[in-house]
Amino acid sequence: MRSIVLVTLMGLSLSVVGQGRCVESGMLLTRVEQPPVPDVTYDEIALRLNLYFTPRQLGLSDGDTLSLSCLINCRGEASDFQVSGLNRLEKAPDIQNLYRDIDWRPALDNGEQVDCLNRCDFQAQDGRFILLTDHEVKQRRRRGR
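Request: output the structure for the sequence above.
Response:
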């Protein structure tokens, strides 16, 4: 069974969906005690993204959003790397490598390590990628309706 978890950490837009691989309770969760933690800051992930790519290289315009996500299992191993919002799909494997190089501490819920999907959103602005906060993501979703 799958457990669903939505989390916001330090104002960043981080959607977390528990996969139930470590905790087989079958409960539908609304949050975890502690989301997965990377060995670098989310600002460092944004820096890496800007170091290797520009929005234009990826077919993005100012205001477009790029989302990176991956599954972090109960052992802190990352897999199932996904990129959404990308207009040049051939660049997806290169972008996915940004997450492959990160070590993770797994999410905790009820004191147990759980599998989670970690998502981080970036907006193209003035030829760079800017890390979106949770507040900014909510505003964009409301405007898009």
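The radius of gyration is 15 Å.
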